[in-house]
Amino acid sequence: MLDQDHIEEVREIGPDLREAIAAGDAERISALLDPLPYSDALRELLALSPVERDGVLELVPAELAAELIEEAPDEMAADLVERLEPERAAEILEELDSDVQADVIGEMDADDAEAVLSEMDAQDAADVRRLAAYEDNTAGGLMMAEVFRFSDKDTVGKVLRTFASEEDDFERYRGQHPYIVNEAGEPTGVVSLRGLLTAKRSAHLTDIMVRPMTVPVDMPLERLEDIFDEHPFLGIPVVDTDGLLVGVVSRSAVAEAVLERSESESLKRQGVVGDELRSMPTWLRSRRRLAWLSANIVLNIIAASVISAYEETLAAVIALAVFLPMVSDMSGCSGNQAVGVTMRELSLGLVRPMDALRVWFKEISVGVINGIALGLLIGIVAWIWKGNPALGLVIGAALALNTMLAVSIGGVVPLLLKRLGQDPAAASGPLLTTVTDMAGFFFVLSFATLMMPWLI
Amino acid sequence: MLDQDHIEEVREIGPDLREAIAAGDAERISALLDPLPYSDALRELLALSPVERDGVLELVPAELAAELIEEAPDEMAADLVERLEPERAAEILEELDSDVQADVIGEMDADDAEAVLSEMDAQDAADVRRLAAYEDNTAGGLMMAEVFRFSDKDTVGKVLRTFASEEDDFERYRGQHPYIVNEAGEPTGVVSLRGLLTAKRSAHLTDIMVRPMTVPVDMPLERLEDIFDEHPFLGIPVVDTDGLLVGVVSRSAVAEAVLERSESESLKRQGVVGDELRSMPTWLRSRRRLAWLSANIVLNIIAASVISAYEETLAAVIALAVFLPMVSDMSGCSGNQAVGVTMRELSLGLVRPMDALRVWFKEISVGVINGIALGLLIGIVAWIWKGNPALGLVIGAALALNTMLAVSIGGVVPLLLKRLGQDPAAASGPLLTTVTDMAGFFFVLSFATLMMPWLI
């Protein structure tokens, strides 16, 4: 019901929006987009032509433009910003936190990025350059440069005055606690809310602070996940190799990165490497998909060579050709289920590469049951359909065996790939289907060759 | 490098842990598990036999046991808790927030759940019963019952004294702001940190409060995502149909639910409906996987009937059988790439069911390029391999056409399923492969029938 209403509502805005853009009516555009959730407003923006999009981003207040840019995935955000005049692009980006600025600018062409950076506040631009240099999915790549920072000479009163005065800036710290930094720039303390609320205004921060937990810039996402899991902090200070405070990584930045990693892995398992969006250029989308498909077609040809080796058997019992794709597809599906569960357990941290044997035991027990069930089913179908019990036996036995093989491979291969330092998300599927295709064809055709007297 | 170290470290703990459990040495067990990240500690626990697991959960301090339970996915957590004595289970659960309690107890058998609830604090048990009644992935299902709640008669001083005193309870509110509730129980205000820090202690909360944003108990996860996207709040009060304050939904609970939904959809796309973990009973895992596979095998049989209809053509040109599985597999892969991108854009909110036509235009442009590229590739391979240019033409043309069909279906079907109120994650794949299998077989075999004079 809600969804339906939503669709109607969205449908109505498009023409009005185009009219307002054509008329250069900035207020009307804002009035149309402002009441929408950002995700809906972004979709409206994307439904426009590129020139109309530029119009919207140039005309609306910088804050609204910044929200739309932040809502978009990074690559798309970079595409949108690149098309604007550098002054306007800088104005919009200045509304965003430094971590988002760095993500968007990091996706831009080097020349465009430089043009925008040179229009930004010098300090902000320096922060962005610094942040953009860190690896994605490390503390450095996820942190923001804005730190709610005080000196070890400051008092509680100073913090309270800051709360009272710097209204805008305070928003930027996303609920950070005040961090105390010594003259060298090392974080030496953090002050709790309770400390602030219950201490005298004249108290020195050093009297009520505790030693802060810190993480190094190169700490990987997996460890950050563990740390935020175990501690209630909303943010953790990040230090460089000299122990100096360089930023703060927030709980929400880590949560967002984990979600993105999960969705990106899920795409890769479907054969889409690189986080494709349909707003990307056709040639790029096509090239990325083809790269994966071309590797896959080579594997397919290898598997098909098994069929080719048994052409005589096939020629004698042409009905086998009806069942070959079925056996290979069903085994692939069974194996993919096992891949899915292993990938989930890997991402939940419930299995490690060394657990391959334990995983195999768990898979083969399901594989035996499902193999027998599916083998019986397809065997009976083949028998009745083609009126030949021997054919049913050949097909049924082949599917049963191949199902057991497929779940074994599907369960274990992602762990082995991980152990070898390969990416299990992109490679498990093609490896699995190649082996199960070859084995499936081999089982059907070699069993048929053995049973030939009863088949013809 | 880090990963390798990690593996070594984990490998060492197992035997020591078993020894400590056998000796009933609670301190030793805690000393072994406490220094580990919770995810590693949970994996160690799962590597033990069920009886050993019970031993660990009975012997370690309730806080540590609670952390392990919280780290586990809900179904697994319920299995672990069900095996314990109700008194101990209640003691462990009392360490957790009400939303986690409700999730775990919601997964337990009704009898076990009752036994545990009757051992819990009466107020907590009532909260859990109330929370467990709400739908998953709604504000009610995601909220916690603990509210940092004050009356509209209270002063700033009262809040500050609460901060100073209720050390333990305060942790539970996960950074909530103080909410002001009138006598009827309606939330009438919220007080900002800045307000608290800058007001006099004698000031009434009603003087510095602002009207709070609230959400209804039945607000779905998608809307909550939008709201937390647009507002910096760490929590939002949840009201029932009478407008009474019944709980607070936190930013982190929403982020976690979004991640779980994403992983659960990704599993479903691989044919695993229900969030399988290998710790579940074999018959349950087998039955859930078989349900999906059985539906799939029926679709496979329908597709195979196309081959069966062309057995004469196949008998005449047996080499066709080598390429049939290849055409169907490659088209399935191309289509799945399109499914993956549509699912991603749906979850990012970039497309809506009504955008099917726009999506199709974007897909067919990639489909034409990739279809021609793959068709040429496989056509040349077939020509060279079997020495027949006409065979190359048949196979190449069939794959090219079927690739265009597959990306069209793959891109659009998830949107249509969504529009029909169906679940695109579980159903898109089987629907796609059935149609592309049928069409692929039909293209190859009907083209071959037309080209027969040049093929034999």
UniProtKB/TrEMBL annotation, chains A, B:
Keywords: CBS domain, Cell membrane, Magnesium, Membrane, Metal-binding, Transmembrane, Transmembrane helix, Transport
Domain of life: Bacteria
InterPro entries, alphabetized: CBS_dom, CBS_dom_sf, Mg_transptr_MgtE_intracell_dom, MgtE_N_sf, MgtE_transporter, SLC41_membr_dom, SLC41_membr_dom_sf
Domain CBS: 208-264
Location in or out of the cell: Cell membrane; Membrane
Keyword Transport attributed: yes
SMART domains from the UniProt entry: CBS, MgtE_N
GO molecular function, one term: magnesium ion transmembrane transporter activity
A Pfam short name: CBS
Signal peptide coordinates: none
Record's GO cellular component terms: plasma membrane
Chain's role: Acts as a magnesium transporter.
Subunit field text: Homodimer.
Family to which this protein belongs: Belongs to the SLC41A transporter family.
Protein name per Swiss-Prot or TrEMBL: Magnesium transporter MgtE
Native source species: Pseudaestuariivita atlantica
Organism phylogeny: Bacteria, Pseudomonadati, Pseudomonadota, Alphaproteobacteria, Rhodobacterales
